[in-house]
Amino acid sequence: MLSNVEYTRLMEILLRQDQYIILLHQNADPDAIGSAIALKELLKSQGKNVMIGAETLNNLSKNLLSSLGEFIVASPTDHKNLIILDTSTPVQLGIFEDMIQKAEVVISIDHHETFETSKFKGTKYTYFINKERTSTAEIIFDIMLKMQDEGLLDKENTNYDKIIRGILTGIVTDTGHLRFSDVNTLKTLIQIFKRGYHISDVDELLRVEDDISKKIAILKAHQRMKLYSVSEFIIATSNVSSCEALAAKTILSTGADVAFVGADNGSEVRISGRAKKAVIDRGINLAKIMSQVAPIIGGEGGGHKGAAGANGKINMEEGLKKCVEFFIQDLGGQSNGERLEYTEETEIQDCWGT
Question: Is the full-model pTM beyond 0.70?
């Protein structure tokens, strides 16, 4: 939870300005958009004029946006006061990144582990990060509670239903339907449940049938896989033209312990990494690996221990190779001197049968 000092500093800065735009990373997920909607409502209750900007949204976020009757702008504006949510590096803002240079105030609120915090620092920057939270939505909930304690919120001017539904959706999705939740997550959910809400309230928002392009991306990712056996773990790498995060997640569900999937559309390179809990328990941190890979692909990286990504311009194949190399180095550092068995599987065995 934000300390009293952090909260006081944040509110002093937020209440100073009358207009803001909340910026989100590309392909914004429900944690990003739900947190943005909730924070927008909290600031509106204080008489602030607030917009939300994101270059693209995933399908779940589109559902959430429609359900809560919200809208976003998809191209840069002339706003000078920026709030950057759920975004560990500026490059993830896409076409909105250039707004940072012209901004007068930049406030970054995030829960991702990042090794690039200097990217958001300077005289106009204020940075709030809480790596102990499993979602940005939980941080926004903490801010709401502090505002209530300070007597800044009242039922007449605050759309609590919209705020809570945005926050609840963000928590449920970013914790993998609570699979990656912790004690603090559950404490937050208990407070939400006491207000009369339940996870079932957002279930309908989370039912999205994959379109044909996503299905093809997943199948191609499996078709192009390279497999590596390192110690007791199976690492998979692959490449697609889009949907790399979904492909990495799906590859985990089909047997890999770690998946690194790259996408190169000619103008941008993205690499997404996913790891199972057993891998994280061995000390692996994908956010660290992505920060190491980022310079190789000419960009920036960050995220969580078990889910992270890097965005750049070049060298996708080299970046994927380095993901594996950095993984092996980090695993070796946790192996107490044991020799790691490393084997590359160049073919995927036919497991379909007849």
Answer: yes
